[in-house]
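task queued by scheduler; priority normal; single chain, no ligands, no partner chains; default sampling; output format set to structure tokens
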Amino acid sequence: MLALLADVGGTKTQLALMNHKGDFIHRRTVINSNYSDFDAVVDDFLRQQPTPDCATIAVAGPVDNAIRCQMTNLDWLIDGEALQHRLKLAFIHVFNDLQGTAWGMTSPAVQSRLLSLRGNGLNFTQPVIVISPGTGLGQACIIPFLDSFVIQGTEGGHKTIAPFNPTSAELVFKHWQQHHYPPSWENWFSGSGFARLYETMFPGEAVPDNETLGLTAVNDPASNSARCMELFAQAIYAEAGNLVLQYLAWGGVILAGGIPPKLGDLFFRQEHIDYIEKKNEYIERLRAVPVAMCQEPDAPLLGAATFCMRQMAKR
């Protein structure tokens, strides 16, 4: 069988054709703004390529019935049923992009690219959470089940922020006074939210673009950009601790997404990692949770491949 794989993000889409051995025979990355919809992306990718027999698509947004997704940060509708009918596919699976990333974490290829930040390694015999700051703030949980895994996708990045230190409490209160509703984690602590976060922290200042913000934060520790990105790192670890408690994920925390590796030291600092256990209860238990950073940028696509290979093996 020949499988069509896709990782559809808010900004770009990665695609691949995979044979029955798990080898990629054709792949491409495209910029979403160059296309009107996902069907146009697929048609362009498959031009002069063999027709696939099945498909697995990881999408940045909530998925209904493993087949349909109205994307969160892009006005695209992914209609798996229509795509299956049009391409005459034997089967198609559509899931949240963080479910794809999480499936990737179960593969040896991705596990070899996990950098340990704390502890003696992840324990996949217990639940492991994945938190992924990128365009949005994706969250998922890897749950061991029999000889495989269940991947619980979420839209947890849209939960209301719970203040995790005096600075965040002050900012949430300021936001509430101005807007009369609380911000979500993704509103501030993601690529799409950095401008709002900076503007809230430093009203009246010119807001740097994300690339400038990150570079300045790394190169000038005394800058406001550094203060902004320090709060970001603290927030990600604080929310990771919340997720560990929510899912009893004593197996560990994985930082995924494209942003943490670019900020380097900000995510390596022990005083930031310690925000995982800055709670009223379970402090010692949370302190023992291992932490790793994924350094494999293709994790969602490799996760789609891992899941698809499992489905192909059943047929």
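post-processing summary
- Residues 3-97+298-313 form a domain with the Nucleotidyltransferase; domain 5 fold (CATH 3.30.420.40).
- The longest helix spans residues 224-247.
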